[in-house]
Design brief:
By secondary structure, the protein is of the alpha/beta class. It contains 13 helices and nine strands. The chain has a six-stranded parallel β-sheet with strand order 3-2-1-4-5-6, sandwiched between helices. Strand 1, helix 1 and strand 2 form a beta-alpha-beta unit. Helix 11 packs antiparallel against helix 12. The longest helix has 29 residues. The chain binds ligand NA7.
């Protein structure tokens, strides 16, 4: 298919590369020059990339960035054509998505929101999971593109429901990780080794995909960004604002948002969100470390 891919950040670049690998005819555009994808043509503006494309796929930071790609100067809106599908894999506000979809509809354009999970590793290996909102017919058409970039997609409902589901998912990731970080900090202060605690977590009902993914990085104190803290912070704010619009109270997330605020003030915005741990450590006056050998364990004969 002829695809315009807009936004070559941590996620977008690998996603576009996987589209090329799968044989699609890809044109890319990125705000800052110098980011290219081998085998793809590079365009000078979103409009130029979108002209003649069957599908325009966006993956940029936030709601304002999506709005400027679509409706800013030399935006996609200048190149809309009957039958085109616009897909947004950025994580943005569901209410804004509905407005964007409304604005492109008179040109005969379908709008699909397809935020994803799987982090940098999932984007690189083409094993993302997409949460999709949009009409069945539009989604059916872009199935080969999902297959090139991911391992699974869920149709959550009509346009904007993918974003709504994504916020509900990331809310949980933020809270689960914060629970893990608080557990590690308390354990460190009370003299329990972090690797031992991780072994206990893995052997019990406390285990989770979030801990499984994050623990090896945390034990190595590698806070380089897989999912930058600034983006998780953005998602937390989006969830809180969607909750406010819907008159839903999220007290735990409100507290976690304050921790992200402080972590940002400490200069951690571009580290992984796992770096919120370092704030808890600072307040507790400890540093979490894992000895290479985990807890002694033995099966109890029955
Ligand atoms: P990154 O690596 O921070 O990349 C962000 C991308 O968004 C990058 O290409 C940026 O271009 C682009 N961007 C940011 N602001 C704008 C504006 N105003 N206009 C156009 N383009 C912009 O993020 P990820 O790839 O990890 O994540 C992307 C999305 O997926 C995000 O919503 C996550 O929450 C999920 P730049 O190179 O800085 O010029």
């Amino acid at each position: 298919m002829r695809v315009a891919f807009l936004g070559l950040g941590i996620m977008g670049r690998s996603m576009a590369a996987n589209l090329v690998k799968a044989g699609h005819e890809v044109t890319t555009w990125n705000r800052s020059p110098g980011k290219d994808v081998e085998g793809a043509r590079s365009a000078a503006s979103p409009a130029e990339a979108a002209r003649g494309a069957e599908v325009v796929w966006m993956c940029v930071s936030d709601t304002q960035a999506v709005e400027s790609l679509l409706f800013g100067p030399q935006g996609v809106a200048e190149a809309l054509a009957e039958g085109m599908t616009v897909v947004d894999s950025s994580t943005i506000a569901p209410s804004a998505t509905l407005k964007f979809a409304e604005r492109v509809r008179p040109s005969g354009v379908q709008y699909v929101d397809a935020p994803m999970t799987g982090s940098k590793a999932g984007a690189e290996s083409g094993t993302l999971i997409f949460f999709v909102g949009g009409k069945d017919t539009a989604i059916e058409k872009i199935k080969p593109l999902f297959a090139a970039m991911g391992k699974k997609f869920f149709r959550v409902g009509e346009t904007s429901k993918g974003h709504a589901a994504k916020l509900a998912m990331n809310l949980q990731i933020a809270l689960i990780y914060e629970g893990f970080a608080e557990g590690l900090t308390l354990a460190a202060k009370l003299g329990v080794d972090a690797a031992t605690l991780v072994s206990l977590i893995e052997a019990s009902m406390v285990r989770s995909g979030v801990v499984e993914y994050k623990a090896p990085f945390v034990l190595k104190r590698d806070f380089s960004p897989n999912f930058p803290l600034r983006l998780m912070h953005k998602d937390i704010r989006l969830a809180l604002s969607a909750a406010k619009e819907a008159r839903v109270k999220l007290p735990a997330l409100e507290t976690v948002e304050e921790i992200y605020e402080l972590a940002t003030e400490e200069g951690h915005a571009n580290l992984d969100y796992a770096a919120t741990l370092t704030l808890l450590e600072k307040w507790a006056g400890v540093e979490v470390h894992g000895a290479p050998e985990a807890a002694d364990s033995a099966l109890i004969p029955k």
